[in-house]
Sequence to fold (484 residues):
Amino acid sequence: MANLKIYSTQNKDIQKTMEKEFNKKMYLLKSKNDENATSQAAMVVIDNKTGYVVGCVGGLGEKETSRGFNRATQAKRQTGSAIKPLAILAPGIDKKIFTASTTFVDEETDFNDGSDEPYHPTNYDGYLGEITVRRAVESSQNIPFVKMMEEITPKTSIKYLKKMGISTLTDKDENLALALGGLDIGMSPLETAAAYATIANDGKYIEPTFFTKIETSEGKTVLKSKQKKKNVFSKETAYIIKELLTEPVNGTYGTATYCKMKNMDVAAKTGTTNENYDRWLCGFTPYYSAATWFGFDINETINFNKRNPAGLIWSSIMDDIHEKLEGKRFEKPNKVISCTICKKSGKKATKYCIDTYEEYYLKGTEPTECTYHSSKNKGKKNEINKSVNKNTVDESKNTENVKKETDDSVEKEVIEEAPKVEASDEIIEDPSENTENDTSSDNNIQNNVTEDSKEDIIEETESSEDSTDKPLQDASNEKIENVA
Ligand SMILES: [Zn+2]
Fold:
């Protein structure tokens, strides 16, 4: 393989920005078990439209010369809630099992999944009662997501995850714990970033690549990168998921509010695993998708001043690489329907609804009118408030707003929201132990292409068999132009 020229997809400025952040001493936590070990991290940044890996870092601290273990491509870690958009929102919205405003009751629940013991996941931060999918995304409430998974079924969820390029799922992952990212083996930052890029790229998965072509010293091309492609869901579904994922960034109770950018839409989701072993931040802008993992190679609790170090790395780097880019918003496809919705019921707002917002729907999935709020229906409304409050952990911290209604009566409206806890969102219930044990590191983007890569370059386009919408217009088997 001597004298071969590899055309890398790496963007030198982005790579430099990433390495600078990863070299910051503040991220190096000392291990309590091994005096030579420190915390580690990895991050992959992918161009949404091409699947090109424009930046990749596989470890914290100064670069080591060895090309050993690269966490960005090789580490398989528990994802916690970072899996929710991929495993739940994508199949659920695409198959019209629920909409962004469908409500689920967030309360302590025993799930019977066929095993001897019922599955009893918990929320990290209390229970909110009946809430919409959007509200569940905002602060990553676990129970509604497990209920969504029950309706989707883990089998269907896995089908979607595989279409988005996740290659490390096993038969043991086919259970409800999949909803909260309790995985048998785990997922790599590279595959996670590429799966998020599927949403960012309007439902079309593109296999990520580190190079475009390889030439001999005489300029003869010996290998061209061909990336597998798949239409996983429609651009309408993708838009609704994008919109939902702005909630952790923009919402009052969002878990990733520090990822906000000026004049730029940002979608982001955090992930935290049991015992605080893994922290994730995954998300995208209209330009780039990125996944950041933070943790110890051998599981150890992360104590980072109650903040999410993966989130801090992600936002610092993404801020930097978007600084000179033109501000952009996620573009709403024409076929996406927008409706004014009652925040409490998740139904179409009437003149009696007090707290309303704009929500987005696939055609035909718009909700019916809100019946909770009407001049005739106050008894029912009070009943609902009561049942919701029963499930709220700390009622004393709820805010009471008194608002005047249009039908000349004054009513008390209790806003049911949990108190905010900074940067910590969710703990998965029962992840299997991760025993990654390789401590060598490789902070470099992988430019060395081995013989193996030749076997991986199958190009494939598959129409979304599950989507009930029309096939995507750009479903052609397009090839990526080679660039130097
Ligand atoms: Zn209403």
Q: What stands out?
A: Residues 341 and 348 are 5 Å apart (CA to CA). The longest helix spans residues 309-322. The radius of gyration is 23 Å. Residues 5-323+422-456 form a domain with the Beta-lactamase fold (CATH 3.40.710.10).
